[in-house]
Structures are given as C-alpha cells and as structure tokens.
Write a structure and sequence with these properties.
The chain contains 13 helices and 14 strands. It has helices at 3-25, 42-61, 81-93, 106-119, 147-160, 174-185, 187-190, 208-215, 231-241, 257-263, 290-304, 310-329, 334-342, and strands at 29-35, 70-76, 99-101, 123-125, 140-142, 165-171, 193-200, 222-225, 248-250, 271-274, 347-348, 353-354, 370-375, 378-381. Keywords: Amino-acid transport, Signal, Transport.
C-alpha cells in the first residue's frame, strides 16, 4: 500500500459507511398484504386491497413514513388457507417485508399467525373470529370486532326487546362455527335460551329444511344467524319465503351492501351489529367518530365507484395503526414497531376507538359496535344516541 492510498483509506471507508447508512435510511418500507381478493371471500379482500393500495399511494405521495416510501407486496390467496400460508412465506422470506397486513378470513388468518410469530414480524389481521386475537400472541394484532362481541351486542339488543328464546342457524365455516360457539358461552350472561340449533355448509344453496325446523319449534322469539358470505343472504331469502314472523339477526360478517343486494326485499327489518362506517352520514354531528368514517367513506366511494363496506374500513384502520406505530418508532425496526402497535391508545378508527395493551391486541370494547336495522334497502341506526 502506498502512503497516499494509506492516507485516503480512512476517508474512503468513512464515505462508504456514510453512503451505506444513507441508503439504509432511505430504503423502502416493505409491507406484505395477503388478502382474499377473489373467491368466496372476495367481498372482504377486494375492498381491503383497494383501501390499502389507495392509502399507500397517498402516503407515498406525501413523502412516505419517516422519509421512506412504502413498497407494497399484494398476494391474493383466494380464501384458501394453504395459499395464504404459501404467500405469507414468500412475503416473509423472499420479499423481506417489515410488516404484514393480512388475513381476510378467520381460516386464512389462522394459517398466517404462526408464520408471523416464527419470523417475529408484526401482523395486523382482518379476521372476524375471536380466535384470531385470543389468546394474545406477541406479534399478532387485529382490527375487526370479534364474533364474541357480536353475540353480546345481539343479545344485549334482544334483552332490551324482551326476547329471550332464540333459534340459531350457523354457518359451518371457521367464522360461523366460532361465532356459534362464542354465542353459546354468553347465553347465561344475558338470560338467553337457545331452543333450536341448526347449521349449513359453505356450499349449501337452500336452508329451508333447517329453517322449517326452527319455525316449528314452539316458543322461539327471534333467530340469530352467525355466518358470512352468501350463506346469510340465502338464509334471509328462505326466511321470508317461509313467512317466519319473529325478528332475524345477522352477524357483522354481512356488513356490506352486497348482502342487501343478494337478500333483496327479504332483508327488510333484519338487524345486525356493525361498525359506524355503514351509517357514517347518519351519525349525530357530535359523534366523535363521524369525521373519520365520513372521510373514509367519501374517499373510498369517490376513488373506487363502489359502496363502502366495513371490511375496507378494517384495512384502513390496520394500515393507519401500523403507520402511526412506525412514526413513533422512527423506523421500520420490527421489534420497535411491534412495541408501538401494542402501545396504541385513543386511536379513532372506522371500527371505533382503539386502546391496545400487552393483554389486548384488539383494543375495542362493545361500544365500538352500533346496532343497525335494514329499512327500505339501507342501513338505519338503532338508538343513535346510545
């Protein structure tokens, strides 16, 4: 080594270190989204995908997060847990994502949680069942209200109406089976008695036999349908065809106009617990959630030309919780971001006010749910002041 090179070497090494640090500081933040964009759960995954892509583009146009742009990796699992697992592995191992916004259904989410835990990468999922967030896993979080919460909100409303004897007709899919189970655990708490308990498969196209049994059961005052997808719409149409007179309650799994379209006039009078997003403009002006849900609804509908659903709202909440956590962490460091997600407090989302903790990776309580009724083909808020 010549004296000149010897003198220059420290400067060259320092410059290289500076460039490496600068490059790392401005590297893309990588987010993986594994969603059910097509298939039987497309009514969940499609608005989730549109929402995430729309807001990521907006965030990037405004300078990104901490000066870094978001690079989004989107995969469509078609509602298949095996595909979700395959794409989750690809996102983690090949794409090297810093976080996952993934899991449209309970089944696909349950396939993704172990991957995120093993890789120690934050995951915010959009599944409905309580098992997608309980027991608490270190790296797993969730934005939608749980099926247990839906049961309690429905039973709360039944009790207010003096209706305590019910029939149950549940989907056999992961969400429907979980919600049925959760409902059964809180019947005693609300003084509800289940007099009939029927179910249907994901591919069933006629639930008349099960509903006929329920109709023939003496003393039933209302019917509860834990389920999502096309099943509840078929139940609703068959319900009307059989001229069953008692009230019908659906789950938050039908929180989109697609359900009303599929069920048609038979949906009139159906009640369900749902996020405030479905009745954004109908909220009282003093409702602290109104601005958030109206802004999201307006943006989504203007940019997509489609009616808003609660499912896209869950994706919005997940993305914004992640973005705020990264801002507080001042980096995309996985462990630091995970810690900041867990510290989320007073976050006003489309699903409600989120207050997470080490023992609660959802952060919503029962007040986040609104009880809605379908009237004249639209959602109506029950007890708007409550």
């Amino acid at each position: 080594m010549t004296p000149r090179v010897g003198r220059l070497l420290p400067r060259l090494l320092a410059a290289a270190a500076f460039l490496t640090a600068a490059s790392a500081a401005h590297a893309d933040i990588k987010i993986g989204a594994i969603l059910s964009v097509t298939g039987p759960a497309s009514f969940l995954g499609d608005p989730e995908k549109k929402t995430i892509e729309m807001y990521v583009a907006d965030i990037n146009a405004k300078g990104g997060i901490n000066g870094q742009q978001i690079k989004l990796f989107v995969y469509d699992d078609g509602g298949d847990p095996n595909q979700a697992r395959t794409f989750g592995t690809r996102a983690l191992e090949q794409d090297g994502v810093d976080a996952l916004l993934a899991g449209s259904t309970t089944a696909t989410t349950m396939a993704l949680i172990p991957l995120a835990e093993d890789a120690q990468v934050p995951l915010i999922n959009f599944a409905g069942a309580v098992q997608a967030v309980t027991p608490v896993k270190k790296w797993n979080f969730k934005t939608p209200h749980t099926d247990l919460m839906a049961c309690e909100k429905i039973f709360e409303d039944l009790k207010k109406r003096g209706l305590t004897k019910v029939g149950m007709i549940s989907g056999k899919d992961a969400f429907g089976a979980s919600m049925r189970q959760q409902c059964m655990t809180v019947t005693g708490k609300y003084g509800i008695e289940v007099l009939a308990d029927e179910s249907y498969g994901p591919g069933d196209t006629d639930m008349t036999p099960q509903l006929t049994k329920i109709k023939g059961t003496a003393g039933i005052q209302a019917v509860v349908n834990p389920g999502f997808g096309q099943g509840p719409a078929i139940v609703t149409r068959n319900y009307k065809q059989l001229d069953i007179k008692v009230p019908l309650y659906e789950s938050h799994g039908v929180g989109s106009k697609q359900y009303i379209s599929l069920a048609g006039p038979a949906a009139e009078g159906v009640r369900l617990p749902a996020a405030a997003l479905l009745v954004a403009e109908k909220l009282p002006d003093n409702d602290p959630q109104k601005k958030v849900v109206v802004d999201y609804k307006t943006t989504y509908e203007q940019k997509t030309g489609q009616p808003v659903s609660t499912f896209g709202g869950h994706a919005y909440d997940g993305l914004m919780i992640l973005v705020e956590a990264m801002k507080r962490a001042k980096s995309a460091d996985k462990a630091k971001v995970r810690d900041e997600i867990e510290k989320t407090k007073s976050f006003m989302g489309t699903g409600g006010v989120v207050n997470m903790s080490p023992t609660d990776h959802l952060g919503l309580d029962l007040t986040a749910f609104r009880m809605l009724e379908i009237k004249n083909g639209d959602w109506v808020l029950i007890n708007p002041g409550s």
